[in-house]
Design goal:
- It contains 2 helices and 9 strands.
- The protein has helices at residues 2-15, 18-25, and strands at residues 28-39, 44-47, 51-56, 60-71, 75-90, 96-100, 105-113, 117-124, 129-137.
- The chain has 139 residues and is of the alpha+beta class.
- Strand 6 (96-100) and strand 7 form a beta hairpin.
- An 8-stranded antiparallel β-barrel has the order 1-3-4-5-6-7-8-9.
Length: 139
């Protein structure tokens, strides 16, 4: 009886792992709602009118997002991100989304991933900015 309880507990732990949940919840179409930018000096900017979406299937992510934020009212910064049929992989612990692009591989941290919400962030080394995308599933 003791062995049965241990085996059942192990099966439950592995069946409900973060990796398995994320692998199950990630595929789908995601609309970008809010983009949060943290620059190299620690200042944080938001664009709640960001446009774009990402389509994620079992092996690829494609789509784009465009956003604009005001840099202390002095000028507007417009930026975008594009994923063209980029392959991806989820780390073994289920916390990192590795997105392989033509020029580099992004290490995007999964902040929130449910059936309806996706939030991930990655550091853009060329622009010295941490970029966070909050999305909702398109039904």
């Amino acid at each position: 009886m003791k062995q049965f309880a241990v085996i059942a507990l192990l099966m439950l732990l592995f069946a409900c792992s973060k990796y398995a949940r994320n692998e199950k919840n990630l595929p789908g179409s995601w609309k970008v709602d809010v983009v949060r930018i943290e620059d190299g000096e620690g200042f944080i900017f938001y664009d709640s009118l960001a446009t774009g979406s990402f389509a994620i299937d079992a092996s690829q992510i494609k789509g784009n997002a465009s956003y604009t934020y005001s840099y202390f009212g002095l000028y507007d910064v417009t930026d975008s991100v594009v994923f063209n049929q980029s392959g991806y992989d989820i780390s073994a612990d289920g916390e990192i989304l590795q997105i392989a692009r033509d020029t580099d591989t992004l290490q995007a941290k999964i902040i929130v991933l449910t059936k309806k919400h996706l939030t991930f962030e990655y550091y853009d080394y060329l622009q010295y900015r941490l970029k966070r995308f909050s999305c909702t599933r398109i039904l």
